Amino acid sequence: PFERAKALLHVSATPEALPCREEQREQIRSFLEDSILGRSGGCLYIHGVPGTGKTATVHSVVRELQNDEDMDGFTFVEINGMKISEPMAAFSHLWQALAPANSLGSRKTSPKAALAALENHFANPDPARKTTVVLVDELDQMLTKRQDVLYNFFNWPHVAHSRLVVLAVANTMDLPERELSGKIRSRLGTNRIPFQPYTWTELKRILEARLSLVADPNATGGSSTIPVVPLFDDVALQKIAKSVAGISGDARKALDVARRTLDRV
Known about the structure:
Blueprint: H1 2-9, H2 22-37, E1 42-47, H3 54-66, E2 74-80, H4 89-98, H5 111-123, E3 131-137, H6 148-155, E4 164-170, H7 175-179, H8 182-188, E5 192-194, H9 200-215, H10 234-247, H11 251-263
């Protein structure tokens, strides 16, 4: 059970359900459902400090929709500002995902060529086109002096019949007001979902949810009445949750502290 618990407490573990983010999850799901079924484009700005479940919640909703038989098919593309060599590389990444398999674009394309191909793609309606959902994670890293990368990503969803949906995830609440020009802000729109730092009671519930899976491999971890697995007593979990909540409210830190505690046993 110790090794299984440590694996479940690892930040890379992906439980089926995410406690304490039900409201945000519903908002994201509703936005995506409306966009995909309505065959419309749109932008959604998701913000909160690191470790508050933003990306994990998006991944969970996307997985759910991909497995929903009543949902129209869609293409999901993830671009992480921390993992690309430069902001312009986002164009290459997106075009690689959208280019027909037998075209030149299905191989690596320069950002400039990819931008031209994307402009052409979105400007030419195709009745058979599936919706594309793009998660632009670590948006804070995608800023450039001319801001042309973000302008294009937020403008394309408004092109008629583009069927592009952009989920922009950032660590800063006021990044649009502080860093983006008025014309980009107007395209981003007012759809925003905040992720507040977790409270200690929420962090404790997250730890309990992960640990409950040690005893029950089939548990989803989503129930609000989760039995505490006796690897940690209630006081120990409370202590970890309160110490992390007092500093950051970062769930990843709480999981890490709990995992390192087991390492010392």
